[in-house]
Amino acid sequence: MRHGKKVNHLGRKTAHRASMLANMACSLIEHKRINTTVAKAKALKQFIEPLITKSKAENNVSMEKGTHNRRIVFRNLRDKYAVSELFSTVSEKVGDRPGGYTRIIKLGNRLGDNADMAMIELVDFNEIYNAGKAKKKKTTRRSRSSKKTEAVAASPEVETAEVATLEKETPKAETPKAEAPKKEAAKKEAAKKAAPKKEAPEAKDETKTDDSKE
User: Fold this and answer.
1) Is the Cβ–Cβ distance between 52 and 91 less than 8 Å?
2) Can you give the pLDDT at residue 153?
3) Contact between 97 and 59 (Cβ < 8 Å)
4) Mean pLDDT computed over 78-83
5) Domain containing 122 — which CATH number?
6) Which structural domain range is residue 204 located in?
7) Model confidence pLDDT, tens digit, residues 163-209
8) Do 18 and 115 share a domain, yes or no?
């Protein structure tokens, strides 16, 4: 009885176990999901998730630190093609996920030895589960005042208010042009009416002079 058993040796020596986990990790990175036993899937989960974290951290650090992470991952995987795939495609896909990159789904027992079988896959590459989920946009730190101004500018109430003010202002600008000819016509009519009024007293004076002569 071994009470301090923290690592499942999987019935293999250290070198054989390390090679097996490295090969399984390369297959998982290449195919994004593999079928194996539950015990091996749990061991692979503990083996590969720290490596994915190191590949994801390359985009947030300097070039020297990123090269160091690549060397550590290559020491464990021993396959340059798997390392390049991990640091390019996989790291971009899981960039927003803070851990839990793999999922284990049990498939039942295997015929022959009745071993518990499972499928281990990369969570973000499952198109069935992630079909209805919307992609999260990257957020940047901004002040609250700028967010409020953007929200007010984008609100429909402000747009309707602007349209109403424009509608009110447009007839005011057009009214002077429309009233100008009307005022000129009214002035001409007043001038015409005033002209015969001045001539009428002259006719009355003529009549008065005729009466005085008689």
Assistant:
1) yes
2) 56
3) no
4) 95
5) 3.90.1030.10
6) 150-213
7) 566 566 555 544 455 556 667 777 777 777 765 544 445 544 544 44
8) yes
Please state, in angstroms and rounded to a whole number, the distance separating the CA atoms of residues 176 and 27: 81
Residue 199 lies in a domain: yes
Residue 6 resides in a domain: no
Q: How far apart are CA 124 and CA 97, in angstroms?
A: 9
What is the per-residue pLDDT across 125-167, written as a single tens digit (0 to 9) for each? Answer: 988 877 666 666 655 566 565 555 565 555 555 556 555 665 6
The verdict on 67 and 156 lying in the same domain is: no
